[in-house]
Write a structure and sequence with these properties.
Length: 270
């Protein structure tokens, strides 16, 4: 049976399917190559960019870096970090969440298409262009509505809404001042309560949400924790002498830090 997920394909897969519609029914070299390259692009670039942001932000905020290192010393010591350690390390967990929030690594997800016309928040699509993409992200991703118009709605009658392209902007959620006290600052306390315990925030959506959310989220979170703690356990990161740490992002499909140099100082000399 065709699942609702089948409504969305990557552009490369669509080209393959257009050439040979039957080819979506079985595995062959072309779709295998697409699948593997999707996994590499989706899994490598994203995780390594978060880690690059992490090291840059630790250079920028040495006190936060020291706090993480103290927690590593207290919970892990000299042994290899394990994923179970995360439960006892709320501060480090909060810092990693804040790196992802502040870095806004995947600012927009790839376009989706509506499957039918709908009434959105009690309005017909012809009124929808009054809303911000931000509203749309919340209602589609959090409330699982998968069909709406964001563009030129006034000219698209309700029954024509099917197939309207929609690009949810995750950055607008990650910087929402209703959910984050200091949205434009690097502030790990966004994910900590007054007792220093880790607190979830429903607007933390760097992996997107809904049917097309990141399938690698659990793996990515484990990788980020193990690499980040492993690096800070062994090194302190600082800017080379006489250089300023610049945290201006380079905008693209992923938001990356600008090219920069890092001094990694072995911690045994701390
Ligand atoms: C910190 C790291 C990561 C971030 C921030 C991230 C973020 C995202 C986001 C926002 C999407 C939705 C993209 C869209 O709809 O255009 C996505 C999709 C996806 N991600 Fe990740 N990702 C990360 C790591 C990974 C890893 C490690 C893997 C697997 C090895 C992975 C595999 C995928 C796949 C296969 C999709 C497509 C899912 C679908 O279309 O149904 N991601 N990711």
């Amino acid at each position: 049976m065709r699942s609702r997920r089948d409504n969305f394909y990557s552009p490369i897969s669509l080209l393959i399917f257009q050439k040979n519609p039957e080819s979506r029914r079985y595995f062959h070299n072309e779709n295998l190559i697409t699948l593997v390259s999707n996994l590499i692009v989706a899994g490598l670039e994203t995780t390594s960019t978060v880690l690059r942001w992490g090291l840059l932000l630790m250079m920028k905020y040495p006190d936060i870096q020291k706090n993480v290192q103290r927690e590593i010393e207290r919970v892990i010591g000299q042994r290899q970090p394990q994923i179970e350690d995360r439960k006892q390390m709320p501060y480090t967990d909060a810092v990693i969440h804040e790196i992802q929030r502040f870095g806004n690594i995947v600012p927009a997800v790839s376009p989706l298409a509506t499957t039918q016309g709908i009434v959105f928040r009690g309005f017909f699509p012809s009124k929808m262009c009054k809303w911000t993409v931000h509203d749309v992200v919340y209602d589609t991703l959090i409330n699982q509505i998968d069909c709406f118009c964001v563009k030129n709605c006034a000219r698209v009658p309700k029954y024509r809404c099917q197939g309207t392209h929609v690009i949810p902007l995750l950055g607008s959620v990650l910087k929402d001042k209703n959910y984050f006290e200091k949205p434009d600052e690097f502030y790990p306390e966004h994910f900590l309560n007054s007792q220093g315990h880790f607190v979830k925030n429903e607007a933390f959506l760097p992996f997107s949400a809904g049917k097309r959310r990141c399938t690698g989220e659990i793996l990515a979170k484990a990788e980020l924790f193990l690499f980040f703690t492993g690096l800070l356990q062994n090194f302190s990161f600082q800017a080379p002498p006489d250089t300023e740490v610049n945290i201006t992002p380079v905008f693209g499909f992923t938001n990356t830090p600008m090219s920069h140099k890092i001094c990694a100082v072995l911690r045994h000399n701390d």
